[in-house]
């Protein structure tokens, strides 16, 4: 490297001398009249050597710069410049400055890379948290709606889409008044957002109508989402309380009906006992009539209490069920014998069409007997004098089923009441004058057949022509 520098200096001096001689020659013709004729030749040669050395120097400089650029590209840092310049040009002050610049640039690049990594990690964490929150919201069975400060829908789950009947994908970042077609729900969201409440929440009850008719009742919890001090949106959670309201109403109706049904026989029993105490029944015949009324009302009260308790036990799963192979024909015959005196009093004809006794079903005998007796008792109660009740049972061996029907020629049930005859305490208004009852008998039959024995209850009826109540059970293998 040192020899190259010496060569460059020597050639530069030589070129400078030659150039000086040529200049003098051009200026005054000194060389032409000089005593030394060879001086012109020396100057020309010096000038030529200087030119050649200059070209060589420029070529060397070009080659060194190319090496610096190539190494800089490969290392992707400014350090290569600081390392190459001292070797190529031997300028210590320049190389030191470039080295400081390259070090500062490297530090800046390293800090930028570290910051970029931190931002990338933060982005991944934020994305994971958002996905986690979305997964939680999507898994909630309640309907969830999340809006921003501009009342645009930013997040919703499948339950909300079904409740308000909108497309979950298309609804994203759309105004709520374009997504929801429920003015009351839109007003609730806007009111909550405009209230600027940061910690409070609001709970309201609202019925959402559906396109298919009817509606569902929801308990709506509205909360504000805040970003610092400024409100950032609203979260609405809709919990379906339709079934809870129906159950509550059923409980209220149940208590009301039980109170009424218990009070009626108790009132009769109390009245006749008071008449007996007051001595209003002087003769034996009157006393016997009073005693029979008291006995009938007591039996009615006992049946009511038994039915309520049996239904409650079956619904709660506390009833003790003992299933054994039972002959349906035998159970039907026993129930017919018990109900015959009541049918005879009303001159009702009882007809039987029963299968052989060897056809059996796996059942709790007492409960199945009670279900059959309830159906026969209803048939006698709602069949006018001189009518007919047919008890028939058939076996379908291919399907492994046994079907029992109790057909009467009674008053029948109106079509509007037919879907509800197995509900607790339900009685058709048109038949209230025909006979009294508690409305629990058919409900108990349904529980015994379907809940306990996993069978199926059947009903057909025509007003003025009669009704057909039945049930289907599995045959024993």
Task: Characterise the protein shown here.
Helices cover 55% and strands 19% of the residues. The chain has 477 residues and is α+β, with helices and mostly antiparallel strands. Residues 26-36, 76-82 and 84-91 have low confidence and may be disordered.
Summed up, what is this model?
By secondary structure, the chain is α+β, with helices and mostly antiparallel strands.
User: Topology as H/E string?
Assistant: HHHHEEHEHHEEEHHEHEEHEEHEE
**CATH topology group of the largest domain:** Heat Shock Protein 90
Shape: elongated
Q: Span from first to last CA?
A: 109 Å
The CATH level-2 architecture of the largest domain is identified as 2-Layer Sandwich
Sketch the major β-sheet. 6 strands, antiparallel
Low-confidence stretches: 26-36, 76-82, 84-91
Secondary structure: helix percent: 55-70%
Strand content: 15-25%
List key phrases describing it:
Helix Hairpins; Beta-Lactamase; elongated; 4 domains; alpha+beta; five-stranded mixed sheet; 13 strands; 19% strand
């Amino acid at each position: 490297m040192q020899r190259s520098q010496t060569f460059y200096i020597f050639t530069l001096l030589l070129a400078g001398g030659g150039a000086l001689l040529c200049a003098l020659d051009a200026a005054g013709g000194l060389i032409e009249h000089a005593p030394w004729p060879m001086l012109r030749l020396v100057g020309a040669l010096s000038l030529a050597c200087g030119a050649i050395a200059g070209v060589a120097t420029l070529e060397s400089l070009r080659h060194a710069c190319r090496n610096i650029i190539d190494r800089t590209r490969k290392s992707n840092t400014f350090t290569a410049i600081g390392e190459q310049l001292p070797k190529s040009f031997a300028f210590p002050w320049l190389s030191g400055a470039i080295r400081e610049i390259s070090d500062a640039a490297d530090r800046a690049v390293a800090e930028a890379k570290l910051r970029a990594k931190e931002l990338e990690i933060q982005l991944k964490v934020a994305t994971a948290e958002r996905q986690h929150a979305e997964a939680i919201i999507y898994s909630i069975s309640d309907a969830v709606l999340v809006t921003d400060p501009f009342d645009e829908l930013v997040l919703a789950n499948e339950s909300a889409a079904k409740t308000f009947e909108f497309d979950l994908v298309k609804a994203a970042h759309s105004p709520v008044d374009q997504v929801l077609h429920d003015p009351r729900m839109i007003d609730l969201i806007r009111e909550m957002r405009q209230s600027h409440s940061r910690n409070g929440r609001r709970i309201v009850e609202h019925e959402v109508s559906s396109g298919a008719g009817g509606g569902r009742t929801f308990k709506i919890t509205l909360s504000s989402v805040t970003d610092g001090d400024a409100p950032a949106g609203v979260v609405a959670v809709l919990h379906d309380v339709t079934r809870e309201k129906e159950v509550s109403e059923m409980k209220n109706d149940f208590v009301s009906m039980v109170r009424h049904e218990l009070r009626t026989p108790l009132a009769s029993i109390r009245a006749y006992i008071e008449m007996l105490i007051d001595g209003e029944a002087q003769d034996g015949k009157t006393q016997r009539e009073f005693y029979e009324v008291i006995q009938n009302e007591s039996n009615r009260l006992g049946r009511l209490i038994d039915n309520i308790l049996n239904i409650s036990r079956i619904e709660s799963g506390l009833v003790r069920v003992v299933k054994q192979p039972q002959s349906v024909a035998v159970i039907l015959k026993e129930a017919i014998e018990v109900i015959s005196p009541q049918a005879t009093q009303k001159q009702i004809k009882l007809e039987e069409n029963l299968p052989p006794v060897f056809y059996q079903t796996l059942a709790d005998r007492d409960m199945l007997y009670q279900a059959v007796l309830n159906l026969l008792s209803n048939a006698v109660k709602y069949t006018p004098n001189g009518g007919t009740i047919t008890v028939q049972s058939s076996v379908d061996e291919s399907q492994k089923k046994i079907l029992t029907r109790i057909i009467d020629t009674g008053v029948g049930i109106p079509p509007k009441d037919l879907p509800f005859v197995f509900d607790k305490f339900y009685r058709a208004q048109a038949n209230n004058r025909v006979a009294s009852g508690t409305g629990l008998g058919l409900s108990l039959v349904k529980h015994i057949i379907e809940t306990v024995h996993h069978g199926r209850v059947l009903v057909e009826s025509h007003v003025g022509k009669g009704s057909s109540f039945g049930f289907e059970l599995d045959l024993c293998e």
